[in-house]
Design brief:
The chain is mainly alpha-helical. The chain has 16 helices and no strands. The radius of gyration is 23 Å and the shape is elongated. About 12% of the residues have low confidence.
Length: 286
């Protein structure tokens, strides 16, 4: 019981830190969720079902949190604003073997990634955390959030593009000094994206998650073969997704966590004793 609760604590706390964005809210959420879960633990016949239920309860608690990140955008994310312009694509192409994003991601620490994730509006952040950090399926996320699969895919893609853009921007200029210098040396004027490039960007997450139908997949790969900037951008997006999946989990204060486990175990034993008494009473009456 002690080991099981410790595992649940770490899982709920890490999820809550990523979604709530504040340690106090994460601690409150962890405590509330675990106290609610004790009477129901014996009812779950699979770890996945328990995980989905825990995240559903934690999600509700986090979204009702009193605190809101001061960095969170006030409006919904626009796909148009998240897509790179021609100058950025050209700079990515120049850097192809070591894009600014690739270099940045290699040295980016956990705090910078957390900051980027926490700048997301809550409805986008939740989907990114569940999919890329907790690695749940679209179906599980739909059960937790009540959203349609299509809505989940749209929010996931925009959240990924936002995080990629934030990580790139933290390199000082958003593109990196070397990339900007080479771009200016080649005198690449800012131009609108090509129509094919623009259509392709909307499908990148589906492509990376192997959720794109064969015909569209072939069309995208054909475009990539002839467009080095788009190929480099896809690599930078893939790197930022990998960064999310490899992010270290935050853990609660060990002393407070141990105290909470003792309280939960005591409550669990009292609950089991009550159930036993009810069972004995029914047996005597029969």
């Amino acid at each position: 019981m002690e080991e099981a609760l410790a595992l649940l604590q770490k899982t709920v706390y890490s999820f809550s830190m990523n979604v709530c964005g504040q340690r106090e809210d994460a601690e409150d959420t962890m405590q509330e969720v675990l106290f609610k879960s004790v009477p129901y633990l014996s009812r779950f016949d699979s770890p996945r079902a328990l995980l989905v239920w825990l995240f559903k309860v934690a999600k509700n608690r986090c979204l009702m949190s009193r605190r809101r990140s001061k960095f969170a955008p006030k409006s919904a994310l626009s796909l148009e604003e998240l897509m790179p312009n021609r100058r950025e694509l050209q700079s990515l192409s120049v850097q192809h073997e070591g894009t600014p994003e690739t270099t940045l991601l290699r040295r980016e620490n956990a705090k910078r990634l957390r900051d980027a994730v926490r700048k997301l509006p809550p409805e986008y952040r939740l989907i990114l955390v569940l999919h890329d950090m907790e690695e749940l399926s679209d179906t599980d996320i739909s059960e937790i959030t009540g959203l349609r699969l299509g809505t989940i895919r749209v929010r996931l893609h925009r959240a990924r593009l936002f995080v990629r853009k934030e990580l790139a921007a933290r390199d000082g200029s958003g593109m990196g000094r070397h990339a900007r210098g080479r771009s200016e040396a080649r005198q690449i004027p800012p131009q609108p994206r090509g129509r094919n490039c623009k259509a392709m960007f909307a499908e990148l997450s589906n492509y990376l998650d192997e959720a794109l139908d064969d015909s569209l997949c072939e069309e995208l790969e054909k475009h990539m073969d002839g467009c080095e900037p788009c190929k480099a951008f896809l690599l930078s997006l893939e790197n930022s997704i990998h960064q999310c999946r490899e992010a270290s989990r935050e853990t609660p204060d060990p002393h407070a966590a141990a105290k909470l486990r003792r309280e939960l175990i005591s409550e669990y034993h009292e609950l089991m004793a009550d159930i036993s008494k009810i069972g004995q009473a029914k047996a005597r009456r029969s």
